[in-house]
Amino acid sequence: MLACGGLTLCAAAIAQPPQPAAAAVVPGHALEFPGDYGSHPQFGIEWWYVTGWLVTGEQQRLGFQVTFFRTRQPVADANPSAFAPTQLLIAHCAISDPARGHLWQDQRIRRAGLGLAEAGIGDTRVRVDDWLLERRDSVYQVQIAAEDFALNLSLEVTQPVLLNGVAGYSQKGPSPQAASYYYSQPHLRVSGSIARATRRDTVSGEAWLDHEWSSQSLDSQADGWDWIGLNLDDGGAVMAFRIRGHQGQSYWAGGTLRDASGNVQSFGPDDVGFTPVRRWRSPRTGISYPVSWRLRLGARQFAIEPLLDDQENDARFSSGALYWEGAVSALEAAHAVGSGYLELTGYDRPLSLR
């Protein structure tokens, strides 16, 4: 996932000594597990992004999204206080519910430490208050108690890690410095429960996890991105993104396809195409989002349709961003072939990742 940043820390107006630069993403670096499941605090920004489709006992289909962000704040490095916000943690969560017609959503932001928030090193354990994403052996646990909904889910790994880009080095622009380390875990088997207001449901389904970290994933010519992750019904997986330039044009793109036999292909800018088909305008913000698409990935063509149009996520309280992020289905040659999540950023104003 290319996740939504834009958080600006207002520092006190006092002189600070020069701070060490954040670590750089470089090609040729081999990802290693389980260590790279964990946090990389020397990098500027990092996120763990879980999305999926659920079905209740009454066969209602829902989408869900849980994202934890870690951002490094080097302006605070020289401050010895335990209260210095050297790392900030942000969490977003949402349920896509067609019966409601718009998202159940919530968000939190905390400084790391003080027993309130953490992003563990060595394996996945990310927590903001009582919101938690943790990997235990081959199962991820998600626990979210939001204001008017809750998620308590187990996500069982069924496939190997999918390395995106070139062995996990994912370029986001013409400059090699505009890049991230990036892997996905498709086809996670979901079980557990959700609550919405006073209603509680046992659910099952399938999910996708992205983990990505970088210090410069967008360059100055980029305004935002379109990203999609799809679990295909035959066991395959699709990740694709495009970076948009200042005029809305495709500035850069990339993708990964793992087929039903486990063969992996990586795609560059010439092999990936996002073509908008239909737009939806938010009644709250007035932003117009393209919610229906044609996606080209190499020789394959997918039609992308949303579970519901209104999946706008308002994260201005935490990350400062307004964006569309929601459950979608995929068709190929007019046949349903999979489901996943689509993220659309930078449609109200250029997105800032810092």
Gyration radius, rounded: 19 Å
Question: What portion of residues is helical?
Answer: under 10%
**What is the name of the CATH class?**
Mainly Beta
Major sheet description:
13 strands, antiparallel
Which term fits the overall shape? globular
| Percent range for β-strand residues | over 45%
- CATH architecture label: Beta Barrel
Whole-number total of structural domains = 1
Count of DSSP E strands?
23
Low-confidence stretches: 3-19
What's the rounded overall pLDDT mean?
89
Number of helices: 0
According to CATH, the homologous superfamily is: AttH-like domain
- Report the order of strands and helices: EEEEEEEEEEEEEEEEEEEEEEE
Helix-and-strand structural type: mainly beta
From the N-terminal CA to the C-terminal CA, the straight-line distance is: 16 Å
Fill in the CATH topology. Answer: AttH-like fold
